[in-house]
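Entry type: protein chain
Record version: 2
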Amino acid sequence: MPQRSLSYRLLRAVLILLLLSASALLVSSLWQQRERVSTVELLERAKAHDARIVRDSWGVPHVFGAKDSDVAFGIGFAHAEDDYATIQEVTLAIRGRLAMSKGSAAAPGDYVVSLLNIWPTVEAHYASELPADLRAVMEAYADGVNLYAAQHPEQVAASALPFTGQDVAAGFLFKMPFFYGLDKTLKQVFEGKAELVKTPTGSNAVAVAPIRSSDGATRLLVNSHQPYTGAVAWYEAVLQSDEGWHVAGGFFPGSPFMLHGHNEHLGWANTVNAPDLADVYQLTSNPENTDQYRLDGQWRDLEKSTAWLWVKLWGPLLLPVPKTVYRSAHGPVLRTEQGDFALRYAGMDEMRGGLQVYRLNKARNLHEWQAAMALQAVPALNYIYADASGNIGYVYNGMFPDRQAGTDWQGTLPGDRSELIWTGYLPPERTPQLWNPSSGLVFNANATPFHASAPEDDLQPDDFAPSMGMQTNLTNRAQRLQETYGADRSISREEFRTYKYDLSYSERSALVATLQQMLSLDAQADAELRAAQAQLRHWDQRSDRPNRSSALAILAAMPVVRASDQQLAAVDLRESLLKAAASLKQHFGRLDPEWGEVNRIIRGNDNFAIDGSYDTLRSVWGEAQPDGTLKAVAGDTYIMFVEWDQQGRLSSDSVHQFGSATLDPTSKHYADQLALFVEKKTKPVWFTEAQLAGHIEREYRPGQ
């Protein structure tokens, strides 16, 4: 009898497993079928739009249309031509469906989409909170992406179609908080294993007013540091509609809006800032019912819902995995071994991020631009502004929680007091900002807002509430901005560009301080350490390609500095120096190879030495390779110089680290800008049709 019972249980388990597998396969097939049947409708929807795409001699799309929605349709199609796979991956991530193609490693990120209540928020507020003109633009962009997908079904993953305007809105809602570091808090749930939206590695931005320019021009540097590929990699385009949407600059996959660059009248650049915009509350759980927490002396039920994670097993087979999502009055709840923690963060239900950026795109003067900023729908980011009238400005933008005074908001907060649950934000006029300083200069490089101009013009910490949690750090790049642009009272066009490509580490920098500590180590009984120290003494604190001391200095100090920046366990100075020395001798046969031998940028068959390094103004972020080199993967990417002369006439030039053909290695635009990028050169931005004439490679109308 026991044996028969065991056999029965085994048989039942096998049957259940087979049933689950069959169900999963059926679900997968249904997704595939959904994809196939939708293409006819997608092709039909494209007929509602009329966009003209002109590819210039660098492959950059210039999109023209009568209406803003026509232009949005065109940029959606053009962007998909160059980077459909990334747009698709971004879409699946925003929908919480990335594990369908990436497997279990992507499941934590899919869970976060449900944890942050992304889609219930979108479905509840998309039509009611977003005006019709914005929705028309987002939906037209989706139509452009869908047209490309319908024409190239072999590139389309299950569940990716149709791309919608709601996907565009959800992208802003989901991504924006990660720019100020929400991912660092969320990773507590997954013990550091989750790959969410990675925080960008840095950025530079500078504006110079006519009084600071040797020729009376107004100048703007757009220089965000992003990964070279992926969800937040820059794409360049020029858009022009008859309704006044005329912009040139950088775009992210999955969005039709220029995120920074310029229109005819004005421009801006963004850098990442890091104010304290998130709070963590430790909940007191009911020992008799762990699904209850104490608030104001009473037990309250946690809200519960189920997130279904569709995880790829093999081939088309998907496994549906249920995961419970908890929410409290504070916000989403993180269940850990240390207890339950609730999270509240800026922008948690903010749908209007796309609206703010769209209004910035179309602003015609400083007043209209400031009115768009006053929407307070973008939860963070620094803005450096310049315009044709000679105005410049700096905004330490943030949706700053209106927190109770007299409370220490830096640590974990008690979750049983409702007065600590903030419900609103400080008004726009409380946002730290600096307009038209007497010095004629504003800048930022992911540093404190209290060093963004000349000392006499800088914002003062005492003017702002401590609860705003504004950063106080100075990066090396910020220090070098002070020592280059900040030290020059009459900046020429050539100097403005030369300073941007500065290759030095400041005497005040953390990296130089780290090397000084390494030089002070006792090496009396260690010949290898003495040899390494002797080489370090030759370093001139620069990161130029021929430099023979940069490799040892940077490779030794960088792990120490980065561990400190990221608040990780301290790296032993002696070990780091000796490790760097051993690696150089192993791979290059010497302690002093040229920096260009080590520091490389690679694209297809092209492999170039490149100047710059971690946290220099010429920013290059390299990943260690098995051969001892560093392969550049982030840092300087899309760079744009914008200027208005004394008469207000606009000109701009730019460079991308690779080229406009993001994913097509057979295209001549896959890496045609790489040589320019390496040599710190740019190409013209042909902003008007008259400027574009004579530089046209191809012209076409998608869907016709």
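Comment: The chain has a mean pLDDT of 92.
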